[in-house]
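Protocol step 4 of 5: obtain the predicted structure for the target chain.
Materials: sequence only (see below). No template structures provided, no constraints applied. The aim of this step is simply to have a reference model before the mutagenesis design in step 5. Sequence pasted as it appears in the construct record:
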Amino acid sequence: MPWRTIRRCLLFAFLGLLTSVVVAWGVVVHVKLRPQGMSHMRTGVAVVDGVIQRVYRHRRFGQSVERWEFRDTAILTFNAEAGRQMAREIESVGGAANDEGTWALAAAQSPPTPMPTIIGRLDDLAAQGPPVPVHNIADVRTSLTLDAVGWPMRALYSTRRWDSFAATFDANGKPTGMGNREEISNAFVIRWPARAGQSMPDTLVLPYMPRPGLALNTAFFGMLWALVLLAPGAIRRRRRIARGCCAACGFSLAGQTRPGCSECGDGRRAAAR
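Step 4 output (structure tokens):
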């Protein structure tokens, strides 16, 4: 294979990879600017080894999010009343809610029985556990979010872990206050202006962990770059040949007895060999 062809292939592969990353990060910025628009949200719940696993899945153009929540059933009594009060408030405005008592009842069943889903059926997925191991689940709740972005395939992903735990206790050892801890992996984290009314600082999370879709996107965008960069030259050469001119410089070849172009020499070296 000629060295020129190899260099072109490497160039198109690099441009395809760069475009894949730029498009994936562009999706992140787009979602940050327009957070509404998630569709196809589904929820499933299962209880495995005394730990409630609840999984949410939703998608939008260029992004898919999978969020897992874990709660040890042994500590459900910590905020059971708060959970029931929240459920009553949700139901009072026409919503549907599962309070802590329902969760505890599902956890107490032997063998554990998956709870009914809200939309769709993700119980089996929840029972299998998340694709990324989650160790040392917090006292109250741990959530793991896997965020994959890219187009046309999901190319990059990051993980975000959020722990809520009992931070303060009264004289009897009963928890009275909560603490939170966040950990973001496989991503560049950039400060982002907080929205109006938002007390917590915001961040822009740019994933960099590759998925199989990155190779497909690289090939797709690489072919687009090849088409954009090579097509004009190929069309120009065809037009010159159709007019009886040199394909390289456009000089008229009418009346020439020797092969190749007398102006630029294109084709004469090959003929001489």
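Step 4 remarks: Strands lie at 39-48, 51-60, 63-72, 141-149, 156-169, 175-185, 187-192, 202-207, 209-210. The chain has two domains: 3-10+216-272, 27-211.
Proceed to step 5.
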